[in-house]
Write a structure and sequence with these properties.
The protein has 265 residues and is an alpha+beta fold. It is built from 4 helices and 15 strands.
């Protein structure tokens, strides 16, 4: 990935955890990333790399003043959607009955960010690139390949994201994917959405990142050995073989060996 992502495209993911070093050790071992705790002036934010290119961020959970949160927020991956104007997108978020949770804020010369929630409660990030576009490698082993929204109201979520960014939605035409909705930017599929009723009772609306791996079963076994939980054991589905895991601190993510070609952002 050598240029900016089109507005509306998932462009970055990061994880907020109680134990940053433990998370770095887990994901670096599992996916072959390189990463270390960042400088204090950047809040210790770690940019993990693969083949020298950025793939994901990991940060320690903390309050804006640097204190430890009480209660501790859930460990989750945040999906960031690219935008060419944070301010206008956030206005659209509130106009469409979403919630601005944090920001906007400048991140040095790298870009501007904000965190928001859609009307169904799913939290997502926004990224307006400066010198940093987002993930530098996608669709390879250990890198992001897909972002998926699970929601209580698919039509309402579709209307919201189409109102705040240049995103369109359409029913998937893949055999075996009936009821699945695709997010599109400029006519190109960039993510997916499904109803939350396919997840365990009590699961809140959420965005889930998928990482491409060469062997799902091997990654699942390695993750278990490292203390991860298996939320959905490896299984075959229309787009490949996948599993849903939770890292040792509870952060859910999916791994997939895609059997159908996925376009790069």
């Amino acid at each position: 990935m050598n240029g900016p992502y089109k507005p509306g495209t998932p462009c970055w993911i990061d994880l907020m955890v109680p134990d940053q070093q433990a998370a770095l050790d887990f994901y670096c071992d599992l996916f072959g990333w390189q990463g270390e705790v960042g400088p204090a002036e950047q809040g210790g934010y770690a940019v993990c790399t693969l083949k020298g290119r950025p793939v994901a961020g990991i940060m320690k959970a903390s309050n804006p003043d640097g204190t430890v949160p009480d209660p501790m927020p859930p460990t989750v991956w945040t999906t960031y959607l690219s935008t060419d104007s944070i301010d206008s997108t956030l206005k659209a978020v509130t106009d469409a009955h979403g919630t601005v949770m944090m920001g906007p804020m400048d991140v040095m010369d790298l870009g501007r960010m904000a965190i928001a929630a859609d009307p169904t409660g799913a939290v997502f990030g926004l990224w307006q690139p400066g010198s940093f576009d987002g993930a530098g490698i996608v669709n390879e082993h250990g890198a992001l390949i897909w972002n998926e929204l699970s929601t209580t109201d698919v039509p309402a979520a579709a209307a919201f994201y189409s109102a705040v960014l240049p995103i369109s939605t359409a029913a998937s035409h893949m055999p075996g994917a009936e009821g699945y909705t695709e997010f599109k930017v400029a006519g190109r599929v960039v993510g997916g959405m499904m109803n939350l009723d396919k997840q365990p009772p009590g699961t809140p609306p959420n965005w889930l990142p998928y990482f491409h791996v060469d062997d799902v079963d091997e990654i699942q076994a390695a993750a278990e050995r490292a203390g991860a939980d298996v939320l959905a054991p490896a299984f075959d589905m229309v787009a490949g073989r996948m599993a849903v895991l939770a890292d040792p601190q509870g952060g859910p993510f999916a791994v997939i060996t895609a059997t159908m070609p996925e376009p790069t952002p």
